[in-house]
Automatic annotation (TrEMBL), chain A:
One of its GO terms (molecular function) is peptide transmembrane transporter activity. One of its GO terms (biological process) is peptide transport. GO terms for cellular component: ATP-binding cassette (ABC) transporter complex; outer membrane-bounded periplasmic space. It comes from the Bacteria. This is Peptide ABC transporter substrate-binding protein. Residues 96-445 form the Solute-binding protein family domain. InterPro entries: Peptide/Ni-bd, SBP_5, SBP_5_dom, TAT_signal.
From TrEMBL, chain B:
InterPro entries: BPD_transp_1_N (IPR045621), MetI-like (IPR000515), MetI-like_sf (IPR035906). Residues 95-300 form the ABC transmembrane type-1 domain. The chain crosses the membrane at residues 9-27, 99-123, 135-157, 177-197, 235-261, 281-306. It is found in: Cell inner membrane; Cell membrane. CDD domains: TM_PBP2 (cd06261). It comes from the Bacteria. GO terms for molecular function: dipeptide transmembrane transporter activity. Keywords: Cell inner membrane, Cell membrane, Membrane, Transmembrane, Transmembrane helix, Transport. SUPFAM superfamilies: MetI-like (SSF161098). GO terms for cellular component: plasma membrane. This is ABC transporter permease. The keyword Zinc-finger does not apply.
């Protein structure tokens, strides 16, 4: 179980703070809303109806609930998207596309937004969807009494009002061009106004509640009146919670489930050899970090930070710890899949001589540091720490690894130890990633790094609607974090799922495992 | 004899009370607390404080212990902190699942172990004796999750005779349950077999060297009859003890097996609760496990007293 408990806790925490401060441009909004739902890209097989889709998933617990203010882990997230719809969907190209909001438009300055509620959608109980349902569903997460995980993310919303039956006006305390991304958060699923029976949720989703045993098993049946014509093909979805990675893999190999999430990096190559299985590898924003506390010595010296950043052999760790299922990091948290990724920044490489150079510049002949690590940070973190220890030594850095207990890692070590390891799940926008962990005032600024210029630029970019100007600023922000920040980011790790070849329509998605949580309504079973 | 029995039962109750104290102290010492675990990274000092107040975590430990104890004495195990549901509602179906699996394993393992143990004693030193001993020693020497994985590879993945997951729910029929629980049952059986077998063999063998057995041998009574009707009754006390111990293990030690086979029993429930710092659930499970041990051991002692007159009187 050691592999599960704490990383799960972290994942759940991570998912809670995910997607904050989303950005899209007005032009992108125009295009996507005109397109509606993109049909499946041409694939060999046509979607078929029928069958019971069985999913074996990690990330469920006996204390799971279907109350959207309390979603905290992978299984409830996926179940929510079976029963209910979101306001906005992030598609496989990381773009905000319409769901229950069919169109939107920002007023200049991006502080006022008008959203149109989709017409012709009915709930499982036959009620027609209208603006009141959406206001109710958003307001569940707002206000003093709310205990929602995304309460703070929604705090910038100062006004939420109905304008006619089908239009909603949202006012923010400042410009935010990424508001549609913010509203794509998976906590923001829609139920009928006044609904409170979270043990039997009613939504507009592709599947209808049938059986539910938290942390064990659930069964949802197809919604015959689903409003998305090109989705929800199977007759029913059965979710089995299998947190143990070996048991999950066994269930897939022995044919008890059709698909599993979170495949172990160590066994993925073994699974790949099986002719009846597909591995779905999604590159996204998940990345692994070495965190230096910039407020304490010696990490308050940027030269020391640069010495450490040059002391790691990224490629070797990618090959060994992740078995190649990832990509190299360049000490900033923006992934290659992001539209604002800065391609002109040079990839930092292992260079012990540079480490020595920077140590000298900092007035040191050698450096002794203590790295707190645990496999709670990410699976393989201790192996990565050990590899780094050997590599850094050549540059004059003595790393002493301090093994920490996994179950209290995120409470007692993360953000507290001067040099520790961690990870971040992906964020759909650069603004969200930066404002979650790099802005001086961010609650999860886990390197205690403060940079006025960075903060000012970040704020400036948030309210801009001009794509090219934003790209310029986010490019510069990446460069600042790379060369000044307190995080060494050697690797981005892929999300790995595995499925039987019988499952049609399964594809990678940059958000997280299982096609951003919407696998159930998108795949079909080949006979 | 009555006095001995009452003494033994009282001792059991006192032990149970001590266990409850230890469980409470132990869960108090777990790192982190449930408020931060529930709220996760979105916790702010104000929301944590509010939640702690709501959950009664601000009360002193002694007071909370007394509340807890009073609740249990009234049959109220409390409510889960993580989802607010009554613990007994969740615990009982899971306890039933665990007891079903334990019972299934016991029904197979105990006769098998005692039978093989007696057979080993009868044919002491034979090939059969050595083989039984070696094989069971191997099966007890590897961790149960490993035994489980080996069985899964052989019977679920290669031969595909049994499912690798022991998923049951309220709609499963009895036969379904027997079928899906076969591999976990086999795992548990393999793990407990050696202990009981060896104890049976040792205790029968020990009795076999006593003078009255010798005279029985001289009378020309067949060896198997000597074992079954003369030696076994006198060897029963230690056998009962080891059987009780293993029965307790089947209920309490099942956690790893439940994780491997994703069986919705009480062990998995407790593991989940520990992760979430759901202390009332951990305490309830802990108390249940402690209670199982104490109950089975006390019962074993009472049975031993009953079947061995020498134990009825204090020495």
């Amino acid at each position: 179980m050691k592999d599960n408990n704490s990383p799960l806790t972290k994942l759940m925490q991570d998912a809670q703070l995910s997607r904050r401060g989303f950005i899209t441009s007005a032009s992108a909004v125009g295009i996507t809303s005109a397109m509606g739902f993109s049909p499946f890209s041409v694939s060999a097989a046509e979607p078929k109806k029928g069958g019971i889709l069985k999913l074996g998933m990690s990330g469920g617990n006996t204390s799971d609930t279907l109350d959207p203010t309390l979603f905290s882990d992978w299984v409830p997230l996926n179940q929510a998207y079976m029963l209910m719809n979101g306001l906005i969907e992030i598609d496989e190209n990381n773009k905000a596309t319409p769901e229950l909001f069919s169109a939107w438009e920002a007023k200049p300055g991006a502080a006022e937004w008008v959203f149109t509620v989709r017409d012709g959608v009915t709930f499982h109980n036959g009620k027609k969807l209208d603006a009141d349902d959406i206001l109710y569903s958003i307001n569940l997460h707002r206000g003093d009494k709310s205990k929602s995980a995304i309460k703070t993310q929604l705090a910038p919303i100062t006004g939420l009002t109905k304008q006619g039956d089908n239009q909603i006006l949202i006012t923010l305390d400042g410009g935010n061009a990424d508001l549609p991304y913010l509203l794509a958060d998976y906590h923001l699923v829609v139920v009928p106004a006044g609904f409170t029976d979270w043990s039997h949720p009613i939504g507009t989703g592709g599947f209808i509640f049938d059986q539910y045993e938290p942390g064990v098993r659930s069964l949802f049946k197809r919604n015959p009146n689903y409003w998305k014509p090109d989705r929800a093909f199977v007759d029913a979805v059965e979710v089995l919670v299998i947190n143990d990675p070996t048991a999950r893999t066994n269930a897939l190999i022995s044919g008890q489930v059709h698909a599993i999430n979170r495949v172990d990096f160590k066994t993925v190559d073994f699974l790949k050899r099986s002719p009846s299985l597909n591995i779905i590898r999604s590159s996204g924003g998940q990345h692994f970090t070495f965190l230096m506390d910039c407020s304490v010595a010696p990490y308050n010296s940027n030269d020391v930070r640069m010495a450490i950043k040059h002391g790691i052999d990224r490629q070797k760790i990618l090959d060994t710890v992740l078995r190649g299922y990832g990509s190299l990091g360049n000490d900033h948290p923006i992934p290659k899949t992001d539209r604002f990724f800065n391609h002109s920044l040079e990839q930092r490489v292992y260079d012990p001589d540079k480490s020595k150079f920077y140590l000298k510049k900092a007035g040191l002949t050698d450096l002794k540091v203590e790295l707190s690590s645990s496999d709670a940070a990410f699976a393989g973190a201790l192996d990565a720490a050990a590899l780094f220890q050997g590599q850094a030594q050549k540059g004059g850095i003595q790393v002493n690894i301090k093994r920490q207990p996994a179950d209290s890692y995120w409470d007692d070590v993360w953000m507290k130890a001067p040099f520790s390891m961690g990870y971040w799940g992906g964020r759909p926008t650069a603004d969200q990633m930066f404002s979650t962990a790099y802005q001086s005032t961010a609650k999860w600024n886990d390197t205690h790094w403060k940079d006025e210029k960075f903060d000012a630029l970040l704020l400036q970019a948030r309210s801009l609607l001009d794509e090219s100007k934003r790209a310029e600023i986010y490019g510069e922000l990446q460069s600042i974090v790379r060369d000044n920040g307190g995080a060494m980011i050697p690797l981005f790790g892929d999300y790995l799922d595995a499925a039987s070849k019988k499952v049609g329509g399964i594809k990678p998605h940059p958000m997280f495992n299982f096609m951003g949580g919407r696998l159930a309504e998108r795949v079909w079973l080949e006979a | 004899m009555k006095k001995r029995i009452i003494q033994r039962v009282l001792l059991g109750i006192i032990t149970l009370w001590l266990v409850s104290v230890l469980i409470f102290i132990g869960t108090e010492m777990l790192p982190g607390d449930v408020a931060t675990a529930i709220l996760g990274q979105s916790a702010t000092p104000e929301t944590v404080a509010a939640l702690r107040l709501q959950l009664g975590l601000d009360e002193p430990s002694v007071l909370r212990y007394l509340h807890w104890l009073a609740g249990i004495l009234h049959g109220d195990l409390g409510h889960s902190l993580a989802n607010g549901r009554a613990i007994s509602d969740e615990l009982l179906p899971r306890l039933a699942n665990t007891l079903f699996l334990a019972g299934y394993a016991a029904v197979i393992a105990i006769p098998l172990a005692v039978g093989l143990g007696i057979a080993s004693a009868i044919w002491r030193g034979s090939v059969f004796d050595r083989l039984a001993n070696t094989l069971t020693l191997i099966s007890i020497s590897v961790p149960e999750f490993f035994v489980g994985y080996i069985l899964v590879i052989a019977f679920a993945i290669r031969l595909t005779w049994f499912p690798s997951l022991a998923m049951v729910d309220s709609s499963s029929s009895f036969l379904d349950r027997l079928y899906v629980c076969t591999l976990p049952m086999l795992t548990l059986t393999l793990v407990v077999l050696a202990h009981m077998l060896r104890m049976t063999r040792a205790s029968v063998t020990a009795v076999m060297s006593s003078p009255y057995i010798e005279s029985a041998v001289l009378k020309g009574i067949p060896r198997w009859r000597i074992v079954v009707s003369h030696a076994l009754p006198n060897a029963l006390a230690p056998i009962i003890n080891v059987v009780a111990f293993n029965l307790a293990y089947l209920v309490v030690g099942v956690i790893l097996v439940e994780v491997v086979f994703v069986y919705p029993g009480i062990g998995q429930y407790m593991v989940d609760a520990v992760t979430k710092r759901d202390l009332p659930v951990v305490q309830a499970c802990g108390l249940l496990f402690g209670g199982t041990y104490i109950f089975l051991n006390t019962t074993a002692d009472l049975l031993a007293i009953w079947c061995n007159p020498r134990l009825r009187h204090a020495r």
